[in-house]
Design goal:
The complex is a heterodimer of chains A (787) and B (78).
Chain A (H helix, E strand, L loop, with lengths): L8 H4 L1 E7 L5 H9 L4 E4 L6 E6 L9 E5 L11 H10 L11 E7 L3 H12 L5 E6 L1 H6 L2 E3 L1 H8 L3 E3 L8 H21 L5 H4 L29 H17 L7 H10 L1 H6 L6 H16 L7 H17 E3 L7 H9 L4 H42 L4 H18 L2 H17 L1 H15 L7 H6 L4 H7 L6 H10 L8 H13 L3 H28 L10 E3 L8 H35 L20 H12 L17 H15 L1 H13 L6 H9 L6 H9 L3 H4 L5 H11 L11 H13 L4 H11 L3 H27 L3
Parallel strand pairs in A: 1-4, 1-5, 5-6, 6-8
Antiparallel strand pairs in A: 2-3, 3-4, 7-9
Helix pairs in contact in A: 4-13, 6-13, 9-10, 9-12, 14-15, 15-16, 15-17, 16-24, 16-29, 17-24, 20-33, 21-23, 22-23, 22-31, 22-32, 23-32, 24-29, 25-26, 26-27, 27-28, 28-29, 32-34, 33-34
Chain B lengths: L3 E2 L8 E7 L3 H9 L7 E7 L6 E5 L2 E5 L1 H4 L2 E4 L3
Amino acid sequence: MSAPPPSVPRDTRFTVVLTGNPNCGKTTLFNALTGLRGRVGNYAGVTVERKEGAMLGADAAHPVDVLDLPGTYSLSPQSLDEQIARDVLFQRLADVPAPGLVVVVVDASNLQRNLYYATQVIELGHPTLLALNMVDVARENGHEIDFDDLSAALGVPVIPLIACDGEGVEELKAAVNRMASERVSQKATKPELAHAVAGPLAQSPTGPPARWPSDARVEPRSFQELPEAFGREASAIRGQLAGMFPHRDRLASAEALLILSDDKVLAAHPEQYPPALRQAVAASRTRLEASGVDWRSAAIEARYARVSAIAQHVTVESLVEGENFSDRVDRVLTHRVWGLLVFVGIMLSMFVSIFVFAQLPMDALDVGVGWLADRVGSALGAGDLQDLLVNGVIKGVGAVVVFLPQICLLFLFISLLEDTGYMARAAFLMDRLMSRVGLHGKSFIPMLSSFACAIPGIMATRTIESPKDRLVTILIAPLMSCSARLPVYTVLIAACVGGGALRRGMVLTAMYLLGIVGALGMAWIFKRTLLKGEPPPLILELPPYKRPGVKTVLRHMWDRSKLFLRRAGTVILGINVLLWFLVTYPKVPPVAGGAPQAASGPVSQKAGEDAAKAVASGPLAGSPLRSDETPGQVDALENERSGDQLRHSFAGRLGHIIEPAIRPLGFDWKIGIGIVASFAAREVFVSTMSVVYNVGEVDAGDRVATAGLAETLRGEKREDGTRVYTALTGITLMVFYVFAMQCVSTIAIVRRETNSWKWPLFQFVYMTALAWGLAFVTYQGGKLLGF
Amino acid sequence: MDTLPLSSLAPGAKAVVADIRVPVEHRGRLLEMGLLVGTTVELVRFAPLGDPIEIRIRGYNLSLRKHEAEQVMVRQGR
């Protein structure tokens, strides 16, 4: 039939696809195969993580790419993750190369359920190899598995592994290399396919389909004895499918089985199947129902019957099933009293250690940023360029990058909780509470991740099966106080609340709690109004506890932290440059000897007050004090001038424009600039305030960047001499930040996740309205109560 | 022999699934996880807040809400 594809360099690359159940150690194996060179990207159009990397130790002649699919229980997908895995295996994604080899990773200690999926994959007919992982755990639990028997029963090679210790990885690599080299040499001579690894299987009677290289065909096997009527209907549909989609005729048997027994597949993708097929399937189901066959369960039951027979045949039980390690741990960790105490303890120690252990590296980073700013500042002469680089770029981005240690720590904890298996227990413990607002225990994990950043949190929602629940979780995730709010809270608490560490800590905790309560409340409302619907049943595996893999955890932490850094280098950098421009231009006409830009001189408390008075004293007209300088007033004058400059600038005008909208909340136009600027990213508030209030020079030598800013904020006075940043203003501002949607990256990710602008816009509007409303209530209520 | 809902087993008790009355739209995944008619199931524990429950089937642990567990009928003893 068709000629082999032209020999392009990509063609010599050999793609290995890793697939398997969740918790089977697939990611550990992926890391062992690729070292630390794997890349994490996304599948086109969705934010499902696409992990791939070149295999270490591949021959130079035929490089091997490894693609790690999301964990999957079945080829009938229940979540976006599983759908992607299915689509890759069914060759439906244009940007994913055809698998040269599929490695099904199977947890040896949980053989039956893992084989359920493994046999589904083997039936697809790709060249397949079974990586039997965690054979050590199986042995500890008393299951002795005969690998040769298993290989014979499945018709594919079986390689036993202990991926976390690297045992068996070399053997797997050798098998992959052998296949890759056979494939490459066969490509040159174009003979029949690589049966050597795939086992002695019959050859396909049909010619090579268009999309498949001629050497990748393996005759599918079947692992179920279907009820006769069911088998007959399935093979009729198989015939139709093969006629309709000749390029994937090899997958037709498996696909026929899936679309016949899963009513969601056809309904979810009506565009992929012609109406004639849908009618044929409906007719088949009617006939099956008439003859008393349950088409939903027949295939599943038949497969489990076969799989449990295989599992029993290949396993020798050396122990009576008893309590294993995980059972003993769970006795404590899911205990009525201890379980909840430990849970609260873990959450508390997570947040406490984020603050405690991050302090030192944060201080170091801060000193580094100050040093860099000084260096660049003195290397360049005074002028706009220097000002842009020092105040706009280095200090602006630096003010955000300083928080990297906290972000890393938070992700470290989350990765640890995931990798040990505790995350599933957290969902188990919290499910009852989440169900009160109509959500799942599974929504708890995205919410927890959102404490670090709503973006990974929203990405974590892809494990939630129900689209409605997933959407609700996406909508409320940004209400959890993310790490970008932390700098805002820290500065405002220092400036407005004061008091001892306990008092500050309590206010901070209150803000986090407010976010949680807000999120749960909104979930409750959404589930009862906009997105009504019964949540699907919770079906949550509680995997055995395991020792976390250092590499896996660190990798995970770093991959996610990189996202934050990239943001600082792109979005936040852009905003800061823009902001610098808005604050600097248009310029007030320069006066002899004065430097008109922002951030030109040290700000003393007194000077700050004077500047504020000057700023508050009139409309946009020029400064009344410009012409009569006296030597003693130089400092104050400079600051008046920069205050004047700020008011004159685009940013100042913008602040004035929105002032009427925020005055009921007790905010002035300078805060307005901060709010406007941080609609792109919350943490920009801190850098904006330091640009607005000229504190750049002051805090350069300080140990903590925010101390200088907080000091300045505290000195700010209104026209009538009262403080701008009273405790009430500070708390109102924090309440605003708890609820406001101020993050372009989140909006972008919600847009991509929901595939429409409707939901991100809705989210933006509801959160902003909520923020304004609650800030209004806080401020006006506080005033009534006499604060 | 009489059947009873899975959710009414005592922690530690074993039984055999006799009937699954979970609505069809939610039944598929439950079956695919290996909870089928004829499967031996052990109720491991209730979550600290009383719901969900943890069961053991085919050598692994699975968590379900009581609501679904009430719709899985089991037969005890022999």
